[in-house]
Amino acid sequence: MLIDTLQQIVDLCGPRPAGSRSEDKLKQFISEQLLTQQYSILRHQVGFSPFPALLSEQFIQASLLIILTLSAFRFPIIGLLIPFIITLAPRLLLQIIRGLPGKLSTENIIALNQSSDLTDVKLLLVAHMDTANAHPIEGKFIKFTLRSFFYSSYLISLLSLTNIMEFQLPEIFRLILLTYPLIHAVVIIIYQLLVTSPQKTRYSPGANDNASGVAVLLELAKDDDIKRMPVGFLFTSAEEDGLFGAAFFIKQFPRSARHPVIINVDSVGAGDELGLVSSYGRLWSIHTSKQLNYIIRSVDPSLSDIRHFHRAGDYLPFCEAGFNTVSLEAALQGGTPPEYHTTEDKAEHINPEILTRAYKTLLDSIFQLKERSFEV
Fold it and tell me: What is the pTM for the complete model shown?
């Protein structure tokens, strides 16, 4: 049934950017499934403003790298700070995106036991519904550029350190240290200029990211024991546009209520291993709940440790707001599957074994949390 539900989502909706008609079909599908299981449904309207495609994370970092590298000639201390600036840029970009006025509209869906409301929920399971803009070049290129920005920043930092210490490097080394980051940045800017026109915008079918998470939550909602627990289900939108759905839910959450435990379920249908996200960022990382990680690992000790150095998910706003949060995801040899954010994220690339394992791990974790009265 789990793989059937995922297949139904992909067949019915296909690519579903936030606020689109195809995403509306998914919302209707989710609502019908949950109403059949006797849940009460809440819909919260979410305003969001998609960031201009040209001003992507890659474009911002490439531009920063060029500006800071040129500035480092005159002020070497700036060169030493480049790794910190490049690391913080994505996080600051997320904050800027979420601070923009909402020009477009979409909805979150919240499912609760009919005898409860949000103040009663002790565990909230979260999955996002929307799909991402699929880059014309495969996801490996994007992953390479994100990593390379960090490596390039270290090269400039090293060059600035030699200038401050008045240490004379051989000219060929100085040339390599300088030209590689600049060429790298210019290539990224040219790429962004070529592929960000509206005529070339395509969206991922989203079988793994994140029909898999939605399907797992819908299957868990059918369990008779879970129906009697203080467990709620949150299906967010505009995750791919800047984690808008999760951030909006947190703002609307009753301040008088105690924060529920959060388990985010994102992309659990592909790859060769299942894991828990422990942190986001490189320097000054934001961490998920150590205690919650420990509890879920006691259910499945083979869960790998996933660290997000650049990309994030709906777990991040909850972590920032002080919720006990963890995120369950699948990985391929420690990284993202090759179909990630591409037009190849189709149902035929789903790994049924990983998907089923995600469901069983979550089910057992919920019962483990119940034994602790959902106290983390």
Answer: 0.85
